[in-house]
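C-alpha coordinates incoming
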Protein backbone atom coordinates (compact mmCIF):
# COMPACT_ATOMS: atom_id res chain seq x y z
CA UNK A 1 0.00 0.00 0.00
CA UNK A 2 2.97 2.33 0.58
CA UNK A 3 3.46 3.09 -3.14
CA UNK A 4 -0.21 3.83 -3.82
CA UNK A 5 0.28 7.60 -3.99
CA UNK A 6 4.06 7.99 -4.30
CA UNK A 7 4.58 9.26 -7.89
CA UNK A 8 8.25 8.43 -8.49
CA UNK A 9 9.76 5.14 -9.61
CA UNK A 10 12.42 5.09 -6.88
CA UNK A 11 12.53 6.16 -3.27
CA UNK A 12 15.28 8.48 -2.14
CA UNK A 13 17.18 7.14 0.85
CA UNK A 14 15.06 7.73 3.96
CA UNK A 15 11.77 8.48 2.18
CA UNK A 16 10.23 5.04 2.73
CA UNK A 17 11.11 5.13 6.43
CA UNK A 18 9.58 8.58 6.80
CA UNK A 19 6.39 7.48 5.06
CA UNK A 20 6.07 4.61 7.52
CA UNK A 21 6.42 7.03 10.45
CA UNK A 22 3.82 9.38 8.97
CA UNK A 23 1.28 6.60 8.45
CA UNK A 24 1.91 5.10 11.87
CA UNK A 25 1.53 8.46 13.60
CA UNK A 26 -1.72 9.35 11.83
CA UNK A 27 -3.18 5.89 12.39
CA UNK A 28 -2.57 6.14 16.14
CA UNK A 29 -3.64 9.84 16.26
CA UNK A 30 -0.13 10.86 17.28
CA UNK A 31 1.48 14.12 16.19
CA UNK A 32 4.78 14.18 14.32
CA UNK A 33 7.53 16.81 14.02
CA UNK A 34 9.89 16.16 11.10
CA UNK A 35 13.27 17.70 10.35
CA UNK A 36 14.68 16.93 6.89
CA UNK A 37 16.95 19.17 4.89
CA UNK A 38 15.86 20.96 1.73
CA UNK A 39 16.03 18.71 -1.30
CA UNK A 40 15.01 15.54 0.54
CA UNK A 41 11.46 15.62 -0.83
CA UNK A 42 9.51 16.25 2.37
CA UNK A 43 6.40 17.52 0.60
CA UNK A 44 5.85 14.58 -1.74
CA UNK A 45 6.87 12.02 0.91
CA UNK A 46 4.56 13.33 3.63
CA UNK A 47 1.70 14.02 1.21
CA UNK A 48 1.87 10.54 -0.34
CA UNK A 49 1.81 8.85 3.05
CA UNK A 50 -0.91 11.14 4.43
CA UNK A 51 -3.13 10.60 1.38
CA UNK A 52 -2.71 6.87 1.68
CA UNK A 53 -3.75 6.65 5.32
CA UNK A 54 -6.43 9.36 4.86
CA UNK A 55 -8.09 7.21 2.21
CA UNK A 56 -8.15 4.19 4.52
CA UNK A 57 -9.46 6.15 7.52
CA UNK A 58 -11.79 8.44 5.52
CA UNK A 59 -9.95 11.60 6.58
CA UNK A 60 -9.18 14.82 4.72
CA UNK A 61 -5.96 16.88 4.73
CA UNK A 62 -5.32 20.57 5.33
CA UNK A 63 -1.86 21.69 4.16
CA UNK A 64 -0.53 25.06 5.43
CA UNK A 65 2.29 26.93 3.69
CA UNK A 66 4.21 30.00 4.80
CA UNK A 67 3.95 31.89 1.50
CA UNK A 68 1.90 31.91 -1.70
CA UNK A 69 4.99 30.86 -3.64
CA UNK A 70 5.15 27.70 -1.54
CA UNK A 71 1.56 26.85 -2.48
CA UNK A 72 2.82 26.51 -6.06
CA UNK A 73 5.34 23.89 -4.91
CA UNK A 74 2.60 21.84 -3.21
CA UNK A 75 0.39 22.12 -6.30
CA UNK A 76 3.26 20.79 -8.44
CA UNK A 77 3.75 17.74 -6.20
CA UNK A 78 -0.01 17.17 -5.97
CA UNK A 79 -0.23 17.11 -9.77
CA UNK A 80 2.52 14.49 -9.89
CA UNK A 81 0.71 12.39 -7.29
CA UNK A 82 -2.50 12.68 -9.31
CA UNK A 83 -0.74 11.07 -12.26
CA UNK A 84 -0.26 7.99 -10.06
CA UNK A 85 -3.64 7.99 -8.32
CA UNK A 86 -6.37 10.56 -8.82
CA UNK A 87 -7.73 12.62 -5.95
CA UNK A 88 -9.30 16.07 -5.74
CA UNK A 89 -7.42 18.97 -4.25
CA UNK A 90 -8.13 22.67 -3.89
CA UNK A 91 -6.28 25.75 -2.68
CA UNK A 92 -7.03 29.32 -1.78
CA UNK A 93 -5.35 32.59 -0.98
CA UNK A 94 -6.95 35.87 0.06
CA UNK A 95 -9.81 37.56 -1.78
CA UNK A 96 -7.41 40.44 -2.26
CA UNK A 97 -5.22 38.22 -4.48
CA UNK A 98 -8.07 36.35 -6.17
CA UNK A 99 -10.49 39.22 -6.91
CA UNK A 100 -10.97 39.88 -10.64
CA UNK A 101 -13.67 42.55 -10.32
CA UNK A 102 -11.47 45.08 -8.53
CA UNK A 103 -8.07 43.81 -9.71
CA UNK A 104 -7.32 47.04 -11.58
CA UNK A 105 -7.82 49.20 -8.48
CA UNK A 106 -5.25 49.56 -5.72
CA UNK A 107 -7.41 48.53 -2.78
CA UNK A 108 -6.42 47.06 0.57
CA UNK A 109 -7.55 43.63 1.75
CA UNK A 110 -10.29 44.98 4.05
CA UNK A 111 -11.81 47.04 1.23
CA UNK A 112 -11.77 44.07 -1.14
CA UNK A 113 -13.53 41.86 1.44
CA UNK A 114 -16.17 44.51 2.10
CA UNK A 115 -16.76 45.32 -1.56
CA UNK A 116 -16.99 41.60 -2.36
CA UNK A 117 -19.94 41.19 0.01
CA UNK A 118 -21.54 44.40 -1.25
CA UNK A 119 -21.17 43.38 -4.90
CA UNK A 120 -22.64 39.92 -4.31
CA UNK A 121 -25.63 41.25 -2.36
CA UNK A 122 -26.37 43.82 -5.06
CA UNK A 123 -25.76 41.44 -7.97
CA UNK A 124 -22.86 43.54 -9.29
CA UNK A 125 -20.23 40.81 -9.71
CA UNK A 126 -20.71 38.75 -12.86
CA UNK A 127 -17.68 36.61 -11.94
CA UNK A 128 -19.47 35.39 -8.81
CA UNK A 129 -22.82 34.98 -10.61
CA UNK A 130 -21.23 32.91 -13.37
CA UNK A 131 -20.02 30.36 -10.82
CA UNK A 132 -23.58 29.07 -10.47
CA UNK A 133 -23.72 28.21 -14.16
CA UNK A 134 -20.39 26.41 -14.27
CA UNK A 135 -20.80 22.64 -14.52
CA UNK A 136 -18.84 20.38 -12.20
CA UNK A 137 -17.05 18.80 -15.16
CA UNK A 138 -15.74 22.23 -16.21
CA UNK A 139 -14.50 22.91 -12.65
CA UNK A 140 -12.71 19.54 -12.62
CA UNK A 141 -11.15 20.33 -16.00
CA UNK A 142 -10.08 23.75 -14.70
CA UNK A 143 -8.18 22.22 -11.78
CA UNK A 144 -6.70 19.50 -14.00
CA UNK A 145 -5.21 21.99 -16.45
CA UNK A 146 -3.51 24.41 -14.07
CA UNK A 147 0.05 24.18 -12.74
CA UNK A 148 0.16 27.01 -10.22
CA UNK A 149 -1.78 29.95 -8.80
CA UNK A 150 -0.94 32.20 -11.74
CA UNK A 151 -2.29 29.76 -14.32
CA UNK A 152 -5.39 29.23 -12.17
CA UNK A 153 -6.08 32.96 -12.15
CA UNK A 154 -5.59 33.13 -15.91
CA UNK A 155 -7.96 30.24 -16.58
CA UNK A 156 -10.57 31.70 -14.21
CA UNK A 157 -10.38 35.00 -16.05
CA UNK A 158 -10.91 33.24 -19.40
CA UNK A 159 -13.99 31.47 -18.00
CA UNK A 160 -15.10 34.74 -16.32
CA UNK A 161 -15.68 33.10 -12.95
CA UNK A 162 -14.57 34.10 -9.45
CA UNK A 163 -11.36 32.20 -8.55
CA UNK A 164 -12.05 32.52 -4.83
CA UNK A 165 -15.62 31.20 -5.03
CA UNK A 166 -14.76 28.28 -7.33
CA UNK A 167 -11.86 27.23 -5.11
CA UNK A 168 -14.05 27.49 -2.00
CA UNK A 169 -16.80 25.37 -3.56
CA UNK A 170 -14.19 22.82 -4.55
CA UNK A 171 -13.30 22.33 -0.85
CA UNK A 172 -16.30 20.09 -0.23
CA UNK A 173 -15.17 17.50 -2.78
CA UNK A 174 -11.42 17.75 -2.06
CA UNK A 175 -9.30 15.29 -0.17
CA UNK A 176 -6.57 17.94 0.14
CA UNK A 177 -6.92 21.70 0.73
CA UNK A 178 -3.82 23.94 0.49
CA UNK A 179 -3.66 27.33 2.24
CA UNK A 180 -1.22 29.84 3.67
CA UNK A 181 -0.92 30.38 7.42
CA UNK A 182 -2.38 33.86 7.01
CA UNK A 183 -5.58 32.43 5.51
CA UNK A 184 -6.21 30.34 8.61
CA UNK A 185 -4.67 32.34 11.45
CA UNK A 186 -6.63 35.52 10.87
CA UNK A 187 -6.77 38.17 13.54
CA UNK A 188 -8.51 36.15 16.31
CA UNK A 189 -10.33 39.20 17.61
CA UNK A 190 -11.57 41.06 14.55
CA UNK A 191 -12.14 38.05 12.29
CA UNK A 192 -13.13 34.62 13.53
CA UNK A 193 -10.81 31.89 12.33
CA UNK A 194 -12.23 30.17 9.27
CA UNK A 195 -11.10 26.57 9.05
CA UNK A 196 -12.04 25.89 5.43
CA UNK A 197 -12.87 22.30 6.38
CA UNK A 198 -16.23 20.91 7.46
CA UNK A 199 -14.91 18.50 10.12
CA UNK A 200 -11.57 19.40 11.72
CA UNK A 201 -11.77 16.30 13.93
CA UNK A 202 -11.67 14.21 10.74
CA UNK A 203 -8.85 16.22 9.19
CA UNK A 204 -5.08 15.80 9.25
CA UNK A 205 -3.24 19.12 9.28
CA UNK A 206 0.25 19.45 7.78
CA UNK A 207 2.26 22.54 8.72
CA UNK A 208 5.18 23.25 6.40
CA UNK A 209 8.09 25.51 7.40
CA UNK A 210 7.04 24.87 10.99
CA UNK A 211 10.17 26.50 12.39
CA UNK A 212 8.44 29.84 11.66
CA UNK A 213 5.18 28.96 13.36
CA UNK A 214 5.72 30.75 16.69
CA UNK A 215 6.95 34.02 15.13
CA UNK A 216 4.45 33.87 12.25
CA UNK A 217 1.44 33.65 14.55
CA UNK A 218 2.92 36.20 16.94
CA UNK A 219 3.22 38.69 14.08
CA UNK A 220 -0.25 37.82 12.80
CA UNK A 221 -1.77 38.51 16.21
CA UNK A 222 -0.13 41.92 16.63
CA UNK A 223 -1.58 45.34 15.83
CA UNK A 224 -0.60 49.02 15.68
CA UNK A 225 -2.49 52.32 15.65
CA UNK A 226 -1.57 56.01 15.77
CA UNK A 227 -3.28 59.33 16.38
CA UNK A 228 -3.76 59.94 12.65
CA UNK A 229 -5.86 56.76 12.44
CA UNK A 230 -8.20 58.11 15.13
CA UNK A 231 -8.35 61.56 13.50
CA UNK A 232 -9.26 59.92 10.17
CA UNK A 233 -12.07 57.98 11.84
CA UNK A 234 -13.40 61.18 13.44
CA UNK A 235 -13.38 62.94 10.09
CA UNK A 236 -15.04 59.94 8.46
CA UNK A 237 -17.81 59.92 11.08
CA UNK A 238 -18.69 63.60 10.60
CA UNK A 239 -18.38 63.32 6.82
CA UNK A 240 -20.94 60.50 6.81
CA UNK A 241 -23.25 62.33 9.22
CA UNK A 242 -22.65 60.08 12.25
CA UNK A 243 -22.51 62.97 14.73
CA UNK A 244 -22.86 60.95 17.96
CA UNK A 245 -20.16 58.53 16.84
CA UNK A 246 -17.84 61.41 15.94
CA UNK A 247 -18.16 62.87 19.44
CA UNK A 248 -17.42 59.52 21.06
CA UNK A 249 -14.35 59.11 18.88
CA UNK A 250 -13.12 62.56 19.94
CA UNK A 251 -13.26 61.37 23.54
CA UNK A 252 -11.45 58.19 22.53
CA UNK A 253 -8.63 60.33 21.13
CA UNK A 254 -8.03 61.79 24.59
CA UNK A 255 -8.00 58.29 26.10
CA UNK A 256 -5.55 57.12 23.44
CA UNK A 257 -3.11 59.94 24.22
CA UNK A 258 -3.32 59.22 27.96
CA UNK A 259 -2.64 55.52 27.39
CA UNK A 260 0.37 56.33 25.20
CA UNK A 261 1.72 58.60 27.95
CA UNK A 262 1.28 55.93 30.63
CA UNK A 263 2.82 53.14 28.55
CA UNK A 264 5.76 55.21 27.36
CA UNK A 265 6.56 57.25 30.46
CA UNK A 266 5.28 55.24 33.42
CA UNK A 267 5.06 51.48 32.91
CA UNK A 268 4.42 49.06 30.07
CA UNK A 269 3.51 46.30 32.49
CA UNK A 270 1.16 47.85 35.05
CA UNK A 271 -2.24 46.97 33.60
CA UNK A 272 -4.06 48.46 36.60
CA UNK A 273 -3.17 51.96 35.38
CA UNK A 274 -4.86 51.30 32.04
CA UNK A 275 -7.88 49.75 33.78
CA UNK A 276 -8.34 52.90 35.85
CA UNK A 277 -8.20 55.11 32.77
CA UNK A 278 -10.84 53.00 31.00
CA UNK A 279 -13.08 53.12 34.09
CA UNK A 280 -12.80 56.91 34.02
CA UNK A 281 -13.71 57.06 30.33
CA UNK A 282 -16.45 59.76 30.25
CA UNK A 283 -19.37 57.68 29.09
CA UNK A 284 -20.85 54.23 29.69
CA UNK A 285 -17.65 52.31 29.13
CA UNK A 286 -16.32 51.13 25.80
CA UNK A 287 -19.45 49.13 24.96
CA UNK A 288 -21.46 51.98 23.33
CA UNK A 289 -18.61 52.91 21.00
CA UNK A 290 -17.88 49.25 20.35
CA UNK A 291 -21.49 48.52 19.35
CA UNK A 292 -21.73 51.57 17.10
CA UNK A 293 -18.54 50.68 15.28
CA UNK A 294 -19.68 47.07 14.89
CA UNK A 295 -22.79 48.39 13.16
CA UNK A 296 -20.86 50.42 10.59
CA UNK A 297 -17.57 48.62 9.86
CA UNK A 298 -19.01 46.24 7.27
CA UNK A 299 -20.84 49.01 5.46
CA UNK A 300 -20.33 50.83 2.19
CA UNK A 301 -21.65 54.15 0.98
CA UNK A 302 -22.63 54.65 -2.64
CA UNK A 303 -21.71 58.07 -4.03
CA UNK A 304 -22.11 59.74 -7.39
CA UNK A 305 -18.41 60.61 -7.44
CA UNK A 306 -17.09 57.10 -7.98
CA UNK A 307 -18.17 53.85 -9.59
CA UNK A 308 -16.71 51.95 -6.64
CA UNK A 309 -18.72 52.37 -3.38
CA UNK A 310 -16.91 54.05 -0.52
CA UNK A 311 -15.75 51.57 2.14
CA UNK A 312 -16.02 52.70 5.75
CA UNK A 313 -12.65 51.27 6.70
CA UNK A 314 -11.29 53.77 9.25
CA UNK A 315 -13.92 52.56 11.72
CA UNK A 316 -12.57 49.03 11.36
CA UNK A 317 -9.19 50.00 12.74
CA UNK A 318 -10.77 51.69 15.77
CA UNK A 319 -12.96 48.63 16.35
CA UNK A 320 -9.85 46.42 16.26
CA UNK A 321 -8.08 48.83 18.62
CA UNK A 322 -10.86 48.49 21.19
CA UNK A 323 -10.77 44.71 20.93
CA UNK A 324 -7.00 44.62 21.47
CA UNK A 325 -7.32 47.05 24.35
CA UNK A 326 -9.77 44.71 26.10
CA UNK A 327 -7.54 41.73 25.32
CA UNK A 328 -4.57 43.56 26.85
CA UNK A 329 -6.49 43.78 30.10
CA UNK A 330 -7.44 40.10 30.02
CA UNK A 331 -4.39 38.25 28.67
CA UNK A 332 -0.89 38.40 30.09
CA UNK A 333 0.73 37.56 26.75
CA UNK A 334 -0.57 40.78 25.14
CA UNK A 335 1.66 43.81 25.73
CA UNK A 336 1.59 47.45 24.67
CA UNK A 337 4.52 49.62 23.68
CA UNK A 338 4.86 53.10 22.18
CA UNK A 339 7.25 54.26 19.49
CA UNK A 340 7.40 57.91 18.43
CA UNK A 341 8.25 58.86 14.85
CA UNK A 342 8.04 62.43 13.53
CA UNK A 343 6.48 63.50 16.86
CA UNK A 344 3.57 61.08 16.38
CA UNK A 345 3.28 58.26 18.94
CA UNK A 346 2.31 54.84 17.55
CA UNK A 347 0.76 52.35 19.94
CA UNK A 348 1.67 48.69 19.36
CA UNK A 349 -0.10 45.64 20.74
CA UNK A 350 2.19 42.61 20.57
CA UNK A 351 1.43 38.99 21.30
CA UNK A 352 4.71 37.73 22.69
CA UNK A 353 3.40 34.20 23.24
CA UNK A 354 0.74 32.84 20.85
CA UNK A 355 1.10 29.32 22.29
CA UNK A 356 -2.48 29.12 23.56
CA UNK A 357 -3.93 30.19 20.20
CA UNK A 358 -1.77 27.66 18.35
CA UNK A 359 -2.55 24.89 20.82
CA UNK A 360 -6.33 25.44 20.80
CA UNK A 361 -6.28 25.54 16.98
CA UNK A 362 -4.30 22.31 16.54
CA UNK A 363 -6.41 20.39 19.08
CA UNK A 364 -9.38 20.63 16.72
CA UNK A 365 -7.76 18.25 14.25
CA UNK A 366 -7.32 14.49 14.06
CA UNK A 367 -3.55 14.94 14.32
CA UNK A 368 -0.89 17.26 12.97
CA UNK A 369 2.42 16.92 11.14
CA UNK A 370 4.98 19.71 11.40
CA UNK A 371 7.95 19.68 9.07
CA UNK A 372 10.94 21.87 8.35
CA UNK A 373 14.56 21.77 7.26
CA UNK A 374 15.48 23.68 10.42
CA UNK A 375 13.48 22.61 13.45
CA UNK A 376 16.55 23.20 15.60
CA UNK A 377 16.45 21.98 19.18
CA UNK A 378 13.41 19.68 19.60
CA UNK A 379 13.37 20.55 23.30
CA UNK A 380 13.05 24.28 22.59
CA UNK A 381 10.53 23.69 19.77
CA UNK A 382 8.31 21.47 21.95
CA UNK A 383 8.50 23.86 24.89
CA UNK A 384 7.70 27.02 22.89
CA UNK A 385 4.64 25.43 21.26
CA UNK A 386 3.53 23.64 24.44
CA UNK A 387 3.53 20.25 22.70
CA UNK A 388 2.51 17.16 24.63
CA UNK A 389 5.61 14.88 24.54
CA UNK A 390 3.37 11.83 25.07
CA UNK A 391 1.33 12.58 21.94
CA UNK A 392 4.07 14.09 19.76
CA UNK A 393 7.14 12.44 18.27
CA UNK A 394 10.23 13.99 16.71
CA UNK A 395 11.76 12.37 13.63
CA UNK A 396 15.09 13.46 12.12
CA UNK A 397 16.05 12.46 8.59
CA UNK A 398 19.79 11.94 8.21
CA UNK A 399 21.08 13.73 5.06
CA UNK A 400 22.65 10.53 3.67
CA UNK A 401 20.69 10.97 0.44
CA UNK A 402 22.72 14.09 -0.43
CA UNK A 403 24.93 13.06 -3.35
CA UNK A 404 26.32 16.43 -4.40
CA UNK A 405 29.51 18.05 -3.10
CA UNK A 406 28.52 21.09 -1.06
CA UNK A 407 31.34 23.26 0.21
CA UNK A 408 30.79 25.82 2.96
CA UNK A 409 33.18 28.73 3.53
CA UNK A 410 32.83 31.02 6.54
CA UNK A 411 34.57 34.37 6.07
CA UNK A 412 36.06 35.52 9.37
CA UNK A 413 37.20 38.81 7.86
CA UNK A 414 33.82 40.51 7.83
CA UNK A 415 30.80 41.11 10.05
CA UNK A 416 27.49 42.95 9.74
CA UNK A 417 27.13 43.84 13.42
CA UNK A 418 24.86 46.85 13.70
CA UNK A 419 27.43 49.16 15.32
CA UNK A 420 30.04 48.34 12.68
CA UNK A 421 27.90 49.11 9.65
CA UNK A 422 29.27 51.86 7.45
CA UNK A 423 29.75 52.73 3.81
CA UNK A 424 33.18 51.13 4.07
CA UNK A 425 31.60 47.87 5.25
CA UNK A 426 29.03 47.87 2.42
CA UNK A 427 31.86 48.37 -0.10
CA UNK A 428 33.76 45.50 1.45
CA UNK A 429 30.71 43.22 1.16
CA UNK A 430 30.10 44.37 -2.43
CA UNK A 431 33.72 43.56 -3.31
CA UNK A 432 33.32 40.07 -1.82
CA UNK A 433 30.21 39.50 -3.94
CA UNK A 434 32.01 40.90 -7.01
CA UNK A 435 34.86 38.41 -6.47
CA UNK A 436 32.32 35.60 -6.16
CA UNK A 437 30.74 36.68 -9.44
CA UNK A 438 34.15 36.44 -11.12
CA UNK A 439 34.74 32.94 -9.71
CA UNK A 440 31.27 31.54 -10.30
CA UNK A 441 29.90 31.71 -13.87
CA UNK A 442 26.59 30.17 -12.80
CA UNK A 443 23.46 31.55 -11.12
CA UNK A 444 24.17 32.95 -7.66
CA UNK A 445 21.79 33.72 -4.79
CA UNK A 446 22.81 36.51 -2.39
CA UNK A 447 20.72 36.57 0.80
CA UNK A 448 21.20 39.48 3.20
CA UNK A 449 20.34 39.78 6.88
CA UNK A 450 18.02 42.71 6.06
CA UNK A 451 17.12 45.27 3.40
CA UNK A 452 19.13 47.77 5.44
CA UNK A 453 22.25 45.84 4.40
CA UNK A 454 21.04 44.77 0.95
CA UNK A 455 20.21 48.19 -0.50
CA UNK A 456 23.47 50.09 0.19
CA UNK A 457 25.51 47.03 -0.80
CA UNK A 458 23.65 46.65 -4.09
CA UNK A 459 24.18 50.34 -4.80
CA UNK A 460 27.95 49.88 -4.49
CA UNK A 461 27.90 46.58 -6.39
CA UNK A 462 26.02 48.21 -9.27
CA UNK A 463 28.87 50.69 -9.72
CA UNK A 464 31.19 47.79 -10.61
CA UNK A 465 29.41 47.40 -13.98
CA UNK A 466 29.00 43.62 -13.75
CA UNK A 467 27.85 42.28 -17.11
CA UNK A 468 25.37 39.77 -15.71
CA UNK A 469 21.58 39.82 -15.18
CA UNK A 470 20.75 41.30 -11.76
CA UNK A 471 17.50 40.55 -9.91
CA UNK A 472 16.37 42.23 -6.67
CA UNK A 473 13.73 41.10 -4.20
CA UNK A 474 11.48 43.86 -2.81
CA UNK A 475 9.15 43.61 0.20
CA UNK A 476 6.17 44.89 -1.79
CA UNK A 477 6.38 42.43 -4.70
CA UNK A 478 3.01 41.06 -5.77
CA UNK A 479 2.57 37.33 -6.29
CA UNK A 480 2.67 37.81 -10.06
CA UNK A 481 5.78 39.99 -9.95
CA UNK A 482 7.54 37.56 -7.59
CA UNK A 483 6.76 34.63 -9.89
CA UNK A 484 8.03 36.49 -12.95
CA UNK A 485 11.21 37.64 -11.21
CA UNK A 486 12.05 34.16 -9.94
CA UNK A 487 11.40 32.49 -13.30
CA UNK A 488 13.50 35.05 -15.16
CA UNK A 489 16.34 34.45 -12.69
CA UNK A 490 16.15 30.69 -13.22
CA UNK A 491 16.10 31.16 -16.99
CA UNK A 492 19.23 33.34 -16.82
CA UNK A 493 21.48 30.40 -15.91
CA UNK A 494 23.30 30.53 -19.26
CA UNK A 495 24.33 34.12 -18.52
CA UNK A 496 24.86 33.61 -14.79
CA UNK A 497 22.14 35.64 -13.09
CA UNK A 498 22.58 37.13 -9.61
CA UNK A 499 19.59 37.27 -7.25
CA UNK A 500 19.72 39.77 -4.37
CA UNK A 501 17.26 38.74 -1.64
CA UNK A 502 16.85 38.62 2.13
CA UNK A 503 17.05 35.82 4.62
CA UNK A 504 13.54 34.86 5.67
CA UNK A 505 12.18 36.29 2.41
CA UNK A 506 10.05 34.64 -0.25
CA UNK A 507 13.01 33.32 -2.28
CA UNK A 508 15.19 32.09 0.58
CA UNK A 509 12.70 29.59 2.00
CA UNK A 510 10.53 27.01 0.26
CA UNK A 511 11.74 27.93 -3.24
CA UNK A 512 13.15 25.19 -5.50
CA UNK A 513 16.29 25.82 -7.53
CA UNK A 514 17.33 22.81 -9.60
CA UNK A 515 20.83 22.13 -10.92
CA UNK A 516 22.22 25.26 -12.63
CA UNK A 517 19.30 27.42 -11.45
CA UNK A 518 21.47 28.23 -8.39
CA UNK A 519 24.96 26.86 -7.91
CA UNK A 520 26.25 29.21 -5.23
CA UNK A 521 24.67 30.96 -2.24
CA UNK A 522 26.17 33.90 -0.38
CA UNK A 523 24.78 34.49 3.12
CA UNK A 524 25.49 38.11 4.09
CA UNK A 525 25.25 38.61 7.82
CA UNK A 526 23.64 36.94 10.79
CA UNK A 527 20.11 38.39 10.95
CA UNK A 528 19.93 39.10 14.67
CA UNK A 529 17.09 41.56 15.31
CA UNK A 530 18.13 45.10 16.28
CA UNK A 531 17.56 46.16 19.88
CA UNK A 532 13.98 47.41 20.18
CA UNK A 533 11.34 47.79 22.85
CA UNK A 534 9.47 44.85 21.36
CA UNK A 535 12.54 42.62 21.59
CA UNK A 536 13.15 43.69 25.20
CA UNK A 537 9.56 42.86 26.18
CA UNK A 538 9.69 39.50 24.37
CA UNK A 539 12.97 38.48 26.00
CA UNK A 540 11.71 39.58 29.44
CA UNK A 541 8.61 37.42 28.96
CA UNK A 542 10.67 34.39 27.85
CA UNK A 543 13.01 34.76 30.84
CA UNK A 544 10.02 34.76 33.16
CA UNK A 545 7.96 31.99 31.57
CA UNK A 546 10.39 29.62 29.85
CA UNK A 547 13.43 27.70 31.12
CA UNK A 548 15.46 28.32 27.94
CA UNK A 549 18.02 31.06 27.36
CA UNK A 550 16.11 34.12 26.12
CA UNK A 551 18.89 35.27 23.77
CA UNK A 552 19.02 31.83 22.17
CA UNK A 553 15.24 31.51 21.78
CA UNK A 554 14.34 35.06 20.73
CA UNK A 555 17.41 36.05 18.72
CA UNK A 556 20.12 33.54 17.84
CA UNK A 557 18.03 30.47 16.99
CA UNK A 558 15.72 32.30 14.51
CA UNK A 559 18.72 34.03 12.90
CA UNK A 560 20.64 30.79 12.35
CA UNK A 561 17.52 29.09 10.97
CA UNK A 562 17.07 31.88 8.41
CA UNK A 563 20.68 31.49 7.30
CA UNK A 564 20.43 27.70 7.03
CA UNK A 565 17.17 27.95 5.10
CA UNK A 566 18.78 30.32 2.60
CA UNK A 567 21.85 28.09 2.30
CA UNK A 568 19.55 25.15 1.61
CA UNK A 569 18.41 26.63 -1.71
CA UNK A 570 21.32 24.83 -3.44
CA UNK A 571 20.61 21.37 -1.99
CA UNK A 572 18.10 20.50 -4.69
CA UNK A 573 20.88 20.62 -7.27
CA UNK A 574 22.76 17.46 -8.27
CA UNK A 575 25.87 19.48 -9.12
CA UNK A 576 28.75 20.62 -6.88
CA UNK A 577 27.72 23.82 -5.11
CA UNK A 578 29.16 26.37 -2.71
CA UNK A 579 27.80 28.30 0.28
CA UNK A 580 29.74 31.40 1.33
CA UNK A 581 28.86 32.90 4.73
CA UNK A 582 30.01 36.49 5.17
CA UNK A 583 30.06 37.08 8.90
CA UNK A 584 32.63 36.04 11.50
CA UNK A 585 29.82 35.24 13.94
CA UNK A 586 28.95 32.13 11.90
CA UNK A 587 32.35 30.78 13.01
CA UNK A 588 31.61 31.01 16.75
CA UNK A 589 31.46 27.71 18.60
CA UNK A 590 27.82 28.25 19.56
CA UNK A 591 26.65 28.91 15.98
CA UNK A 592 28.80 26.12 14.54
CA UNK A 593 27.11 23.71 16.94
CA UNK A 594 23.71 24.85 15.65
CA UNK A 595 24.56 24.31 11.97
CA UNK A 596 23.19 21.08 10.43
CA UNK A 597 25.48 18.17 9.60
CA UNK A 598 25.39 18.69 5.84
CA UNK A 599 26.88 22.18 6.24
CA UNK A 600 29.76 20.90 8.39
CA UNK A 601 30.91 18.06 6.13
CA UNK A 602 33.14 20.30 3.97
CA UNK A 603 33.54 23.51 5.93
CA UNK A 604 36.46 25.88 6.36
CA UNK A 605 36.89 29.12 8.30
CA UNK A 606 39.12 31.67 6.65
CA UNK A 607 39.65 35.35 5.92
CA UNK A 608 38.78 35.88 2.27
CA UNK A 609 40.98 38.66 1.00
CA UNK A 610 42.67 39.08 -2.36
CA UNK A 611 42.89 35.86 -4.36
CA UNK A 612 42.05 33.68 -1.35
CA UNK A 613 38.43 33.36 -2.47
CA UNK A 614 39.24 31.73 -5.80
CA UNK A 615 41.84 29.52 -4.13
CA UNK A 616 39.31 28.38 -1.51
CA UNK A 617 36.75 27.62 -4.22
CA UNK A 618 39.25 25.56 -6.20
CA UNK A 619 40.51 23.60 -3.19
CA UNK A 620 37.06 22.80 -1.79
CA UNK A 621 35.33 21.93 -5.05
CA UNK A 622 37.73 20.75 -7.77
CA UNK A 623 34.78 19.66 -9.92
CA UNK A 624 32.78 22.85 -9.40
CA UNK A 625 33.61 24.31 -12.80
CA UNK A 626 32.72 21.22 -14.79
CA UNK A 627 29.71 22.03 -16.95
CA UNK A 628 26.54 20.05 -16.32
CA UNK A 629 25.56 17.68 -19.09
Amino acid sequence: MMATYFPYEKYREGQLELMEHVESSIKSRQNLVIEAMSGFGKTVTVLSAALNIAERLNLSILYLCRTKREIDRVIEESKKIQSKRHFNFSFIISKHDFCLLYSNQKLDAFSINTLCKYSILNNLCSYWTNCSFLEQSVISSLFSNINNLTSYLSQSKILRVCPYEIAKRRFFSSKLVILTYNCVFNDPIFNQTELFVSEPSKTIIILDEAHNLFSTISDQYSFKINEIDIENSIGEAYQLGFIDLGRLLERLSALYNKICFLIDKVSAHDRSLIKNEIKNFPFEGISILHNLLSKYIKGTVTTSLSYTPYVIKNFAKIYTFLNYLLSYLSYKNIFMLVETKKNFPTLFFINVDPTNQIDSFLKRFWSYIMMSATVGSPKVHFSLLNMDPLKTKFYYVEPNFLSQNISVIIDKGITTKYKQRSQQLFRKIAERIYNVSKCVPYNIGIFFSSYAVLLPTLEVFSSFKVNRPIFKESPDLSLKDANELCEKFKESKEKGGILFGVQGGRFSEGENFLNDEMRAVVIVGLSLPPPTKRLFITMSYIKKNYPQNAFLVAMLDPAVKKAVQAAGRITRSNLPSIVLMLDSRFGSSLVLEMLPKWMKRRLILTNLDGCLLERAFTQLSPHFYEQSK
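note: The chain has a mean pLDDT of 87.
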